[in-house]
Amino acid sequence: xxxxxxxxxxxxxxxxxxxxxxxxxxxxxxxxxxxxxxxxxxxxxxxxxxxxxxxxxxxxxxxxxxxxxxxxxxxxxxxxxxxxxxxxxxxxxxxxxxxxxxxxxxxxxxxxxxxxxxxxxxxxxxxxxxxxxxxxxxxxxxxxxxxxxxxxxxxxxxxxxxxxxxxxxxxxxxxxxxxxxxxxxxxxxxxxxxxxxxxxxxxxxxxxxxxxxxxxxxxxxxxxxxxxxxxxxxxxxxxxxxxxxxxxxxxxxxxxxxxxxxxxxxxxxxxxxxxxxxxxxxxxxxxxxxxxxxxxxxxxxxxxxxxxxxxxxxxxxxxxxxxxxxxxxxxxxxxxxx
Length: 338
Ligand code: HSE
Fold this sequence. Notes:
The chain is an alpha/beta fold and 338 residues long. The protein contains 13 helices and twelve strands.
């Protein structure tokens, strides 16, 4: 069966997904029996293009790479639902920018798709942060699948690992680095860049959110922590009740002072049991060079999960990035097809 894929959001991550699909078309078919056509691409800036028989992916990529637009294609108009139906998509890859308060526009896209029985893979954190239960119920009701590997640690398969390889484990605590941008900024500042230079570089590399405020003020890490609380502990910890710090007050001087004490400054997120219930935090910590998280540099993320059956399991991998996050969508699309 050919999977007809609609893509919502054709910026850094969406384009990376198209590139990977184009590069690996043959391999995906041979190894996983994953055959696909891209039947719709919609983007806030570039507009919308549809072809139920499959868009010419190479031509789309050429247009994006040369003009950052869909030049040479006839643009489609209409509501998202109308376009989705016209495209005859069987799967939606949702990669629009995150809005942590409303979840929009991704939330409406996902609701529309699930309502039509279309499977959804997303990297947009907003919809999961604001409406995980509603979306899960909607997916069940319409026999559609929904996956969101890319909302935490980009393509590093944390969620898949928890749901499959760690099935049956009881979780005691989790601690780690969950935001690529801030970890990258701290590392670059250790290497001599100013805060602003480092943040600009993180944005250029495609690590930062469209609005990087939510990276640097710790909100992105808090949202991820809240989502992990649902997955690991089945507990709703609202983002507002997470003790949260960001890196906005960090200066090169503070980093240098920590270094003289043999320490590094890291933005660390975690969830642990206390006698008052679960405690979730995103906090700046000065940790010794010997600490396992001290060596996690750049946009790399890492988490250590403490369980009953496995003891401690540590997962280290990319936390942000265009292709790294495109990979999360790809893995989810292939898993849903299987
Ligand atoms: N802005 C996010 C980060 C992207 O830097 O971690 C991946 O969620």
